[in-house]
Amino acid sequence: MLLHPPGGLVQGDRIDIDIEAVDAASVLVTTPSAGKFYRTPATGTHQRVGLHAGPNSRLEWLPQEAILFDGANVALSLDVDLSADSRVIVWDSVVLGRPAIEERLMQGHLDTRLDVRLEARPIFSERTRVPGLADSCLQDAGWGLGGAIAMGTLIAYRPEDFVAQDIEALRQLAVSGDGRYTVTLVDQLLVVRALGQSSRFVRETLALAWQALRPRVMGKPAVAPRIWAT
Amino acid sequence: MGDGQPGLALQRLLQLASPSLPVGAFAYSEGLETAVADGQITHVDAVADWLRGAFTYSVVPGDLAITQRLHTAWRAASIDDVTTWSARLLAMRETAERRAQERHLGHALANLLCAMDMTEAADWRLGRAHAPAVTFAALWALAATRWQIAVTDSLSAMAWAWLENQVLAAVKLVPLGQTAGQRLLFELAGDIPAGVARATALSDDQLGGSLPGLAMASAGHETLYSRLYRS
């Protein structure tokens, strides 16, 4: 479990996290609460996470969501380096504004990247820029976030190619609530994307996808870390 | 080819950007078919909005910015740089169908250029040395460079070819009248010069543009009940 006692990032903060699963190690990393990114009128905040899955290792990175307060300027980057025989499940999710007080990201900006390399070759590279509503209609446009206030991506890798049944299992998740999700396979990487009208929809979709995938990727049943329930 | 005769570069560019180029680009809607089927796009203004969003946030910082770098790499005859940038663009295709489209069009253009005696294209054919990193953009940039086409003209034409293909798909899917399609093309092409200028001004750490709505429309196409298009 990863603790960041201040619980939030303010202007000019920069956090770097590197996690390496060395030969044959197994690790599941999560966080006890959502990461908060406060309003940053001048310089932005940065969070960089580097995950390295060494030979024959098992790595799960399942942090709770990042919450951007209105006016936050945030750059998030997640780099995942896979060894050919590693097993990995990673998710990443963001909430724009504080839905409890009906706040949206009017001012500010999110720039979030997810780059995955397999044996040092790039196999997946996604970069999403979300301007505040005052600057762009992207958050509400169908081609953008379609009015969603939460978005999340889960990726999974295992040495054996995923097959049609794996993808089908993920397409049948019993998700309820307001939102939508899709599943695709890009080369050897399974990708689940969720957009929700609530942060709960995205959290549940990713958790259900993880539950369906864990036996298939790690060969172990999914037992939710107790800290998620607190 | 590429012998520098005045005016010839324009002829070559028109040929490269023509919808009659036999690579099969007309078979791909890039998620537009899903957006129409879902009821997200029902009229011409919604098409314009969708294509503007895709162009501004995805085509400019992705396709165009990387194609410019591919030009530089081909001009320097640096195959390492070509494969690096091409692999990077391929990694940005976030769905199974978009990635298959990129590879299919890349291989088809490699075959065509080979048949037109551009020997450098040979290694990008299916099963050949550079095939794993193949993209349509890599082969487009090869042809454009060897045919002495200026980089901004090449990027403008690539943007035009993308736009024309998307508008033709919208004409068929929404559907729109032929005249409405031409008016839309005329209007949206007005954004291309500024988009090309923006693409060429980006630094390497500003590259890339994914849109959740586009990615999900493309992924959703895999399970669409009835499909005219391959993406």
Q: What would you note in describing this structure?
A:
The complex is a heterodimer of chains A (230) and B (231). Chain A has two helices and 14 strands, in the order E-E-E-E-E-E-E-E-E-E-E-E-H-E-E-H. Chain A has helices at residues 164-171, 199-218; strands spanning 8-9, 14-21, 26-30, 35-37, 45-53, 58-62, 66-68, 73-82, 87-96, 109-118, 121-131, 150-157, 179-186, 189-196. In chain A, strands 1, 3, 4, 6, 7, 9, 12, 13 and 14 form a nine-stranded mixed β-sheet that branches. A five-stranded mixed β-sheet of chain A has the order 2-5-8-10-11, with no helix packed on it. Chain A is globular and about 45 Å long. In chain A, 46% of the residues are buried. The mean pLDDT of chain A is 93. With 231 residues, chain B is an all-alpha fold. Chain B has one domain: Urease accessory protein UreF. In chain B, helix 3 (44-75) packs across helix 8 (178-189) and helix 7 (151-173) packs antiparallel against helix 8 (178-189). The longest helix of chain B is centred in the first third of the chain and has 32 residues, at 44-75. The mean pLDDT of chain B is 96. Classes of the chains: A mainly beta (230), B mainly alpha (231). The A-B interface holds A 113, 115-116, 121-129, 138, 141-146, 148, 151, 171, 180-187, 191, 193, 195 and B 35, 40-41, 46, 49-50, 53-54, 57, 61, 87-88, 91-97, 99, 207-220, 222-223. Chain B: Belongs to the UreF family. Chain B: One of its GO terms (molecular function) is nickel cation binding.
List keywords for this structure.
heterodimer; A: 230 residues; mainly beta; nine-stranded mixed beta sheet; five-stranded mixed beta sheet; 2 helices; 43% strand; globular; B: 231 residues; mainly alpha; Urease accessory protein UreF; 10 helices; 64% helix; chaperone (chain B); nickel insertion (chain B); Urease accessory protein UreF (chain B); UreF_sf (chain B); nickel cation binding (chain B)
